[in-house]
Each structure stands twice: as C-alpha cells, then as structure tokens.
Amino acid sequence: MSSLHDTLHRVTQRVIANSKDGRARYLELIKREADNQPDRNAVSCSNLAHAYAGAEEDQKALMAHRGPNIGIVTSYNDMLSAHQPYGRYPDRLKIYAREIGATAQVAGATPAMCDGVTQGETGMELSLFSRDVIALSTSVALSHAMYDGALMLGICDKIVPGLLMGALRFGHLPAIFVPSGPMPSGISNKQKQATRQLYAEGKATRAELLESELGSYHSPGTCTFYGTANSNQMMMEMMGLHIPGSAFIQPGTKLRQALDRAAVHRVAEIGINGDDYRPLGHCVDEKAIINAAVGLLATGGSTNHAIHIPAMARAAGVQFDWNDLSELSHVVPLMAKVYPNGSGDVNHFHDAGGMGYIIQELLAAGLAHQDLLTVGDSDLARYAQEPGLDGDALTWREVGPSGDDDMLRPPGNPFHHDGGMTLVEGNLGRACFKTSAVSEDRYTVEAPCRVFENQADVAAAFKAGELEKDVVVVVRFQGPRANGMPELHSLTPPLAVLQDRGYKVALVTDGRMSGASGKVPAAIHCTPEALGGGPLAKLQDGDVVRLCAKTGALSTTADLAAREAAPDPRNEAGFGRELFTMFRAHADGAEQGGSSMMSQAGL
C-alpha cells in the first residue's frame, strides 16, 4: 500500500475531526439496532405468516430458518432504460440464494424517475426530492425486520444516493449495490451534439432531432454518457459497495449474470451471523466518502454529486462539504475523458481499463484509501482488478496500462493536473464550476449579466437575438426551496451556440446542470439560493459579473447591500408539486445536500 498523499491525509483527518460527534452517534445507533435485531423464532407467528404467505417455493425454508433471508429493494420500471433489466432480477436472485441455502424476498420498491425524460419539463421540479422519497421508501422496505442483508437494485441519478441514504439508517445490515450495466454504444457523441446545436439554431427538424436522440438512447441499459447515473456506479466502486468491477458490464451478458450471482452469495456471507460480518454502516465511513469524492474528481464526474456526497455522508454521521471537495480537487488529477468531457462513452472507458485502472493508479499514487471495509473479500485493492470468466467461473485479473491514452491516463500524465471541479465564491455566494468539460481559455468570463427566472425566458431571448453579445446569463429561483432545484439542460445548446459564435458566455444559477453540463463555463448550485434573499435575488440586468475558475471568483461590482431582493416568482401548483410543499419548506442548502428529510431528522 502506497503512503497517502499529504493533502488526502489532511482532508481525511479534518473530515474525521468534524464528524466525531455525528459519527459516534451513528455507530451507537447501528450497534443498538444490531443488538435489537429480532430473532425470528421469537416473532409472533401471525407476523411471520404474513411475511411468508407469498414466498411460494421458499416458504418451507423460511419457516425452518435454514439460512439468511435477503431483502431486495428494487427501483424497477420499464420507462427508465437503465432499470428495465431489473424486471427479471428478483426471480434470478432468488435462484442464486437457494444455491447457498439462503432465501430472498422483494422487500419493497422505490420510485425511479428519469431526469432525461423530465428535462425542461415541470416534472423535473420533483427530481431532487425524489431522492428523499427513495430513501424513505427504502426505510419502509427494510422496516419489516425480516432480513439479514439487502441487495439494492438501482443505477440512476437520485436513485443510488437515495437507496444508500435509506439503507444507511439500517446500517447494521450488510448491503450490496447491484447495477445492471450500460446499453451498447450508439451514434457518435459528436454527431448527437452537432444535431442538438443545429436544432437550437433552427437548422434541423424535430424529426431529425428525435432520430438522432434515438440513435444514442436506443436499448435497455444505462445511458452511455458520463452523467450522474454512471458517476453513481463509479462511486459505488470507489466505496467498495459493488462486487468488484461490476459497474460497466452490459446487461444480458454471462459476465453480468455471474456478477449478480456473486452479489447474492456474498451478501449472505457477510451477515451478522457469519464469520465475516460487514455491516453497511461500517463500510461507509469517512474514508469511503473521501474515496467517492476522489473518484468524482479523477474521472470528471457529475456535478450533481457535489450535492449527493454531503447528503450520503450525513446519513452515515459524516460531515463533508465543498471546502473538502475543492481542496481535494487541487491535488487529484483528471485521469479520464469520457463524454461529454471527451469523445468516447462509458463502454469505451471500460474497454480502456475503466474503474480497475482508475483505482489501480489512484492507489499507486497514494490518492485513495485502500484500507476500506468493502463488501468484497478484501480491501479496495480487489477493485483495482477487472472481472472476467474462466468457463463459467468468475475470476479477476490485473488491468495493466491504459488501453487508450485519449480516454485514460495515469496521474503522472493526466489530462489536467487538478480535478474536474472547483469551488467559486464571492459576494454572489458559493457555487461549483465543472472545469473538466470547459476549455481552459474560457475559465474566466467577466461581462454584464442578463437575469432570468426560468429556462423558457432564456430560450426566448436567444431566439430574439438579445443575447448576441458577451453575457453572463443568470437563472435564479431554481434552488431546493424555490422549486426543488431542477436540472437546466435546455440552457446548454443555445449558450453553446453563442459561445461558438465568438462571444464570452457564462451561466450562473442556483439550479443544477449535472454531468452533461457541456462546454459552457457555469457556476451552479449557487448557495445561498435566491429564495429567501440570497445574493442572486438582488442582481439586475447589466450588472457586471465575474466568474473565474482560476482564482475561484464569483462576484459582481454591483452594490447589492443597497437593494431589495426580487420577489419569489414561483407557482408551485400542478404536476404534483403541491404535494412537495413540505419538502421545499424544510430543505437545507445545496452544500448540505439539499435535503428536507436529513435536516428534519437532525442529521
């Protein structure tokens, strides 16, 4: 094991110190829960009958308590391509459990919305809070106290963070995350991006755009660009919560099925009654959280995780903030260029060495913690290998050097010597800037701003030619309390067109952009948000705004102290948004994770 980089050690020690009290309370909670885990022999026969009645061929095994009973928490639906394969998983997972004398039951289901489907639509205002709903649903599923371990079936944007947040409240149980893998690659990413920009300029028809999009998103499996869903899978590897190497194996393959089988067998082995007890709450500690952040920076992953990592950490009693992320970003090099940061997608990334290569190189450079309690049979070193098949037997082999220097490079010869994300701050608040997708000559933009309060008005101003100039576009009242902090993807094509026409263009918003934010410099997740009097609420058209990733500046020359904040323009009714009024009212800031559930639980 290589010695840790000084900065990694320092940040880790700070996180441990800041988390001391919260982590102690959390560990006491899961110890108490483990001690109170009911012996099913002592549970009311009426209770057990309800639990066993639908078990069919597993009923006798459950009645005899022959082995561990595994709870499956599934986020299956067949509208979301990444989760469509999960429809057949429960039957297969039950067969794999029977092979080792265990049983498995579907403990419950969670919602699984697709941000790709709701982009630019009203439903996107429910997206971030769906994470809290998923965490609550996971808690409901595991509240039956019938399980000795859990398998978490989820991949996409808010779903994996929500599953982890919920499962961590039952952290005395072992849990393994089971991905289903990415769809095969479709049309080239350059071709897709070009068609989107042609459509934004009115030079492509809607039919041509739809044909292009279907050429990219075309079959079951995760979307192949490196957005939040695939960043989730990266993090689960960095934290040791997958069977090693599971992240990017495509659905329906023999290797995918072998990894799923291994997940069932392994979760049965690491239960409280076995010889290798590995409760989830001990696997997810300060070092695991640091590793997730390091992986995010090294691969140029989704900016959504600047929100999700603090929220997941809080569920385990760990305090992690943007200062920690930014300090790590100064020393973690950008080792991967995956679309939209590069030309190849996650399939190309995996073929070039993928997560095995990333972890191998980070460990060798002392930039990741190896000494994690993982769900595998070793520490994180096992995750520096790649899985394969020897006949029908699952094996792991060394990854070796990068298979494509345009996709993956070692820390000593990176694409950038710092990470793909940085903190910017000033009199407009604190925000995240994803540098990995932006050309370095665009790191600094200083220009008069145009202030908008929704995406539609930006699109209208673009079509009217009002933005044909150097401009900082400010889109405010998009934070958690205002409207649930939707992603603002529809801003990228018109702003990219303006940039390509030679203008200096930037975006500043208290909303989100995610891993597909593209090549336009953007300060996102701005906190404090506009609602409630945040600085963005006091900006006016024409104020000069400076955004600089090099100096970390997010500021205006305007005298904001002398101004009143603009009133909240939101209409919260319709599309179910009124049901989330409580979530919005109690949400905390983006840097704390934008969660109402966590703030109300005192975490």
From TrEMBL:
Where, in this chain's numbering, is [4Fe-4S] cluster bound?
156, 223
Stated EC number for the protein is 4.2.1.12
UniProt KW keywords: 4Fe-4S, Carbohydrate metabolism, Gluconate utilization, Iron, Iron-sulfur, Lyase, Metal-binding
Protein biosynthesis among keywords: no
**Ranges for domain Dihydroxy-acid/6-phosphogluconate dehydratase C-terminal:** 407-593
Record's catalysed reaction(s): 6-phospho-D-gluconate = 2-dehydro-3-deoxy-6-phospho-D-gluconate + H2O
Enzyme class, one word? lyase
- Might you report a single GO cellular component term? cytosol
The record's free-text note on cofactor binding: Binds 1 [4Fe-4S] cluster.
Q: In which pathway does it act?
A: Carbohydrate metabolism; Entner-Doudoroff pathway
Q: Which GO terms describe its molecular function?
A: 4 iron, 4 sulfur cluster binding; metal ion binding; phosphogluconate dehydratase activity
Keyword Membrane attached: no
Cofactor needs: [4Fe-4S] cluster
Any one Pfam family match given in the protein's UniProt record, by short name? ILV_EDD_C
Output the InterPro entries linked to this UniProt entry.
Answer: 6-phosphgluc_deHydtase, Dihydro-acid_dehy_C, DiOHA_6PGluconate_deHydtase_CS, ILV_EDD_C, ILV_EDD_N, IlvD/EDD_N
Q: Which GO terms describe its biological process?
A: D-gluconate metabolic process; Entner-Doudoroff pathway through 6-phosphogluconate
Domain Dihydroxy-acid/6-phosphogluconate dehydratase N-terminal: start-end pairs: 68-380
UniProt record similarity statement: Belongs to the IlvD/Edd family.
> What does this chain do?
Catalyzes the dehydration of 6-phospho-D-gluconate to 2-dehydro-3-deoxy-6-phospho-D-gluconate.
Q: What is this protein called?
A: Phosphogluconate dehydratase
Organism equals Pontixanthobacter gangjinensis
- UniProt lists the gene as edd
